[in-house]
Amino acid sequence: MKALILAAGRGKRLGDMTNGINKCMIEIRGKPLLEYNLDRVADCKNIEEIIIVVGYRANDIVDRYGLSYRNMPIKYVTQLKQHGLVHAIECSTEALDGHDFFLLLGDEFLENSRHVEMMGFFILNDVMGVCGILNQDTVSEISKTYSVLLYDDTIIRLIEKPKHPINNLQGTGHCIFKNEMLNYIKYTPIHYLRKEKELPDFIQCAVDDGKIIKTFNICDAYNNINSESDMRLCGVISDAIK
Predict the structure, then answer these.
(1) CATH class in words for 2-236
(2) pTM tops 0.85, yes or no
């Protein structure tokens, strides 16, 4: 198993805040946002290597973390042009080298996360994938990521940035996949508005092909850092970050 952390984007919606720094290196409560995800990966004993996809201001990340983190080796993959998350995963195919992978987004902030438990769930169930989700009290927040429709705990439909979410289940970019998921990249449609391949559509291709993708309640609170208001929200979430 390898960890795949996507950290190549600039974060244009943060405006001048990212003119001189990679978005994932913005400090939240005293340490870079990316480092919270590195700590979660390092806690997962089944992971043997960290792959970080870099792009915008890549040296911000490479210079700080070098070739290892908490004794876990790091390999870097460069996404020369930022064409979205699925493209970043595609750029990592060679580095993954046939291994299953734990996908994490470098700009996501989770409170009381359960990555170790999610890893155990993935291994126990022997499925194509597991998507980390949470019960979102503020349903409008789901429009920032994706909705999840389930039959029992198995995904039947994902909806990217829904205008009107029909339940309180919010999907995150923290997912575990078998390496075979990479086969669905070529079938993933390009979104008609954003002109890139989206993570929910990538997963939906596997679901439509009859593959089992389950969900796991990965955290108690979540925020995808895309604006100054998102950063302010992180400042009011409790300090019990794990």
Answers:
(1) alpha beta
(2) yes
